[in-house]
Every structure is written in C-alpha cells, then in structure tokens.
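Could you show me some protein's one-letter sequence and the numbers that encode its backbone in two labelled lines?

___
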Amino acid sequence: MTYQLKIKPPCLICGEIGKRYYGRKLCVSCYLKAKNRGELEKYPKLTLEDSFWQRVDKTDSCWEWTGTKNGFGYGIALLPGERQIRAHRYAYERLVGEIPHGLVLMHSCDNPSCVNPDHLKPATRTENNRDAVKKRRHAFGEKNGHAKLTSEQVAAIKADTRKQVVIAKEYGICPSHVSTIKSGKRRRLG
C-alpha cells in the first residue's frame, strides 16, 4: 500500500521542496533516475507513520486531526489492507500502548478530532456515556431524534390527573411511558 504525504518534505537526493512528489521521499525526476540506476531500494518507502503525523496539527492543548473524518467528527486513518481505524485510537496505541480489550477511549477535551494521548483515557462504554450525560452532550428531550413528545407535552402529562390509559391514547404512546414520565424516571425537564 502506498501512502501520500499532505506536506511535501525536501527530496532526499536533490533537497528541492515543492517539486512534484512521487514516492520514497523523492521528487519525480530523482525517483525516475534512482529507478533507472536500480538504486530505488536505498530510499525508504513512505510509511503510515509518515502520512499519519502530517495530518495532525499540534496546538498547546488538542492535537487536531486534519485528515478524513467520519460524520461524528472522529478522524479516520487508513491502515495497510485498506482497513480503517479511528485516528485517536491509532495515536493512543502508538504513543501510550494497547487499549484494553472491550474498552473505548474517552476524550477529556470533548473534541472528537483530538488525537492527543493526554486527552484520551480508556473507559467502558457505560463510563463514556455517563461522562457525556454529565457534560450534557447527549440529546435530551425533544432534541433526541426518537422523541415523540415535546417538553410542553411532557409537562402536560405530568400535570394531567386522568387515567394513564386515557392520557396514553391521547398522545399516541403506551401507558407505561406515561407512568415513567409521571414518576420522573423519564424525560426530565431542563
């Protein structure tokens, strides 16, 4: 698998910067000359490490992934064999060590594109979700895509003194949902 560099380093033979870049850290003309002389193996192939760290913008706090990101903002790195891995996981494993089996990496900075290992901590999915809830990053109430009721409707259900079956029918929900709303187990307001 060949990797591409985002920023072109100087050619290892001629030292030129900004020339059309080919591979093995050589410009096109030097690459072709080395190939014709049979000396190509003298020069290192581009590695995932070369490509990966050029896509990281290190600031004083977060190390921003500038490469491809998924729909949730997490960086995506391409491993040999066209296998994708999240960039923060790759950075953590390279700089800290293996992530224990069954754990995820929790971002203390709440920045999904950050790959700074100081901002990453192995945690269970439950711990990660609790952290998100504590920091109000989950979609609560009517902001949740699966919500059937508005905040006003939930407040009205809490105040309604009719039987739960009647209330449920009016709002198109099941009576057990009415019960959990009235008991305060679901749909906290605020």
Remarks:
- The chain has three domains: 1-46, 56-134, 147-183.
